[in-house]
Design brief:
This is Galectin. This protein has 128 residues and is an all-beta fold. Helix content is 0%, strand content 59%. Strands 1, 3, 4, 5, 6, 7 and 11 form a seven-stranded antiparallel sheet that branches. Strands 10-9-8-2-12 form a five-stranded antiparallel sheet, with no helix packed on it.
């Protein structure tokens, strides 16, 4: 599954509601938010092989310091609902079990204009 949405007209906040069904052979998936593909304020990247959620930011094609969260609830073949929020000073991902993954807005962006989601899944629902 892959999707691009460019030129989002978001204000100080943005809320994405998505339901994803993971493929049986998936290794990872990513949700990227920022200004363009080379400048990502938020990279949300659950990795099935490592059972870890990696969050990071990308500045002029250069990855910054990774933040790793071992709270891994994703399973191949399962369907999950995620809430991804841009709250100005941080990003927040609400997992189905109530766990929240927070990541600071290191770039200081006041709005998000680029969204990219890709990896081993099918999008079964998407709302903004």
């Amino acid at each position: 599954g892959q999707g691009h949405v460019l030129d989002l007209s978001s204000s100080k906040t943005l809320v994405l509601l998505m339901q994803l069904t993971f493929l049986l052979l998936t290794h990872s998936f990513a949700i990227n938010l920022g200004h363009k593909s080379s400048d990502l304020a938020f990279h949300f990247n659950p990795r099935f092989k490592e059972s870890v959620i990696v969050c990071n930011s990308l500045c002029s094609n250069s990855w910054q310091q990774e933040q790793r969260d071992k709270h891994f609830i994703f399973h191949r073949g399962s369907t999950v609902k995620l809430v991804v929020e841009f709250l100005g000073d941080k990003f927040l991902v609400k997992l189905p079990d109530g766990h929240e993954v927070e990541f600071p807005n290191r770039h200081g962006y006041d709005k998000i204009s680029y969204l990219n989601i890709h990896g081993g899944f099918k999008v079964t629902s998407f709302k903004m």
